[in-house]
Task: inverse folding
């Protein structure tokens, strides 16, 4: 049974969607969960499907054209998921082609150039922002921020990793290699579009994060809300940028950084032939120890 049913007009169809989804959304949500989607992804996908699902019925994608590039991508992603759930993906592809809807906004190069020369995104400035954030947050949250900078994990991944460490999960931290082996927990770290394989972490920093000393471990959302309440204008996603920029500054090859941050190399050489140097872990640990000292300064 389809999640949305056609009607005579886009407005009428959208109205029908809003009432029909209340009784059938659980099956769509369950399907999204089976696709190993995260909680927030499922929430946004469901909301955008609710608002724009009528497009699959009417074939009129003009509401998407008026959206900002970011919102358009969210809506298109939700419609793609919904069409697969309903078995109407070919229909969605035809609508995309008819309205020339692209996943890319076409201005990525300009955005990259602006970010590259933005003084607010320099490494020193980002580290200063993180130190400011750590200075006013509760110790446990500051510990998670530091951990995210040292590992380069995405905010949600960093919080999940801290949870696993504090639960004394076996086979997660490899003391000989001094690394967290995320790949052992594919349901958390090996998602369809975002992955994390390993993170080098010294024994001292592992013990520091394993002894946060709080009953309720911080989540990304709790950190964001605390920052908002304390008027801190800082995004935790800076931690991942700091990690990558710092490693590159200290001689770690970009291909190795991509792997450590969970990005698959798109080139044949990187995917099939490139092998890391034997001392990669040692050099990463030395670099992150210097970063740790900078965060303490």
Result:
């Amino acid at each position: 049974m389809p999640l949305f049913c056609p009607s005579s007009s886009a407005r009428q169809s959208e109205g029908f969607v809003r009432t029909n989804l209340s009784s059938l959304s659980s099956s769509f949500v369950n399907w999204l969960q089976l696709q190993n989607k995260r909680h927030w992804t499922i929430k946004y996908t469901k909301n955008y499907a609710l608002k724009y699902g009528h497009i699959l019925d009417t074939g009129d994608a003009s509401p998407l054209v008026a959206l900002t590039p970011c919102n358009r991508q969210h809506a298109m992603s939700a419609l793609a998921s919904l069409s697969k759930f309903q078995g109407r993906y070919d229909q969605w592809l035809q609508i995309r082609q008819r309205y020339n809807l692209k996943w890319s906004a076409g201005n990525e190069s300009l955005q990259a150039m602006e970010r590259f020369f933005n003084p607010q995104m320099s490494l020193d400035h980002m580290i200063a922002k993180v130190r400011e954030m750590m200075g006013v947050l509760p110790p446990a949250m500051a510990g998670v921020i530091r951990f995210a900078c040292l590992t380069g994990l995405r905010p949600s991944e960093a919080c999940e990793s801290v949870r696993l460490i504090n639960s004394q999960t076996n086979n997660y931290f490899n003391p000989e290699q001094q690394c967290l082996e995320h790949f052992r927990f594919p349901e958390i770290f090996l998602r369809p579009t975002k992955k994390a394989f390993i993170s080098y972490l010294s024994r001292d920093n592992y013990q520091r994060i394993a002894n946060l000393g709080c009953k309720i471990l911080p989540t990304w959302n709790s950190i964001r809300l605390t920052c908002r309440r304390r008027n801190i204008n800082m995004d935790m996603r800076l931690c991942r940028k700091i990690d990558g920029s710092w490693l590159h500054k200290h001689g770690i090859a970009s291909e190795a950084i991509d792997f450590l941050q969970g990005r698959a190399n798109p080139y044949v050489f990187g995917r099939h032939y490139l092998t890391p140097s034997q001392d990669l872990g040692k050099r990463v640990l030395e670099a992150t120890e210097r970063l740790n000292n900078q965060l303490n300064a």
Summary: Confidence is low (pLDDT under 50) at residues 4-19.
